[in-house]
Write a sequence for this structure.
């Protein structure tokens, strides 16, 4: 079965810049989007956890999606996140995605409820019916408590809209399962330190928070592995990126680190909303050192004759 939509390339789950008072900073958001598109990313996701959707009202999420759509101007596909605890809220977001003109939706399991595969599939199909848009599933049991198992995948496969899955379980056996048994659902990397392995197993896309501030470097790994098929070059780029991935994942400061990374590019990303706090001086210094070495190393690899 041929997917009705192809998720190819680097998809950035865009941050939400805030002013000091916690209100959304549209000007900074526009700057981030322009930087991403100039950096060569292939798609943008609004309303993901990297965008702090858990700290926003439904109205804010819809307005942010509308703003993002206006700023992207159709230059790359826009995917709107529909993740929520309540099915009714996810359906409202899905309907908004269609009204706004999003190209696809991101659909996660509802957190905390821990539904069965059958219940989770019924939830996903209800959200799908509301949007009737291409769907990128988001399997992240570490956050939701629920694995999108085989019974789930079999049931949602009844709708052709389910075109891709951002796989963030961290279980490499899931990569094998998806590649072998569900080739009609495009497999995308959602676990950054496994990007090379995903590409080796045929994944055509990667959803990566670090591309918010290092778009060219993430695109370089995609190009090496997927476009050029040069995995020797890909391994060198991946080796240069691993220190960044360790910094992003350690200490539970993912969003805070991504936002400081954006600030390093000259765009004021502002603080995260509570309960999160910004990075301390030591964490900032560590990130700055890692970014400096990473950029120099990858630039050297990509400019070799």
């Amino acid at each position: 079965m041929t997917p009705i939509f192809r998720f190819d390339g680097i998809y950035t789950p865009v941050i939400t810049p805030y002013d000091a008072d916690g209100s959304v900073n549209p000007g900074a958001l526009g700057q981030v989007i322009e930087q991403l598109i100039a950096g060569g990313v292939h798609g943008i996701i609004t309303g993901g956890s990297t965008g702090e959707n858990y700290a926003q009202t439904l109205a804010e999420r819809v307005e942010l999606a509308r703003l993002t759509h206006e700023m992207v101007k159709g230059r790359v596909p826009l995917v709107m996140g529909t993740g929520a605890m309540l099915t009714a809220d996810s359906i409202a977001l899905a309907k908004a995605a269609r009204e706004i003109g999003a190209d696809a939706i991101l659909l996660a399991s509802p957190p905390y409820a821990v539904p069965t595969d059958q219940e989770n599939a019924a939830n996903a199909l209800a959200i799908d019916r509301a949007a009737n848009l291409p769907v990128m599933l988001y399997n992240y049991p570490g956050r939701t408590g629920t694995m999108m198992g085989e019974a789930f995948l079999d049931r949602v496969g009844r709708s052709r809209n389910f075109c891709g899955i951002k796989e963030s379980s961290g279980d490499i056996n899931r990569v094998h399962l998806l590649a072998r048994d569900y080739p009609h659902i495009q497999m995308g990397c959602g676990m950054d330190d496994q990007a090379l392995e995903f590409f080796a197993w045929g994944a055509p896309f990667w959803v990566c928070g670090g591309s918010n501030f290092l778009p060219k470097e993430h695109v370089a790994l995609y190009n090496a592995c997927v476009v050029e098929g040069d995995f020797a070059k890909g391994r060198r780029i991946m080796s240069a990126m691993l220190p960044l991935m360790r910094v992003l994942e350690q200490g539970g400061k993912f969003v805070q680190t991504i936002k400081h990374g954006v600030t390093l590019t000259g765009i004021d990303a502002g603080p995260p909303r509570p309960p999160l706090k910004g990075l301390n001086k030591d964490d900032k210094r560590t990130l700055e050192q890692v970014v400096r070495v990473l950029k120099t190393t990858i630039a050297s690899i990509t400019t070799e004759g």
About this structure: The chain has one domain: 9-229. The chain has a mean pLDDT of 97. The beta strands are 9-13, 43-46, 78-81, 104-108, 135-139, 162-167, 186-189, 205-207. The longest strand covers residues 162-167.
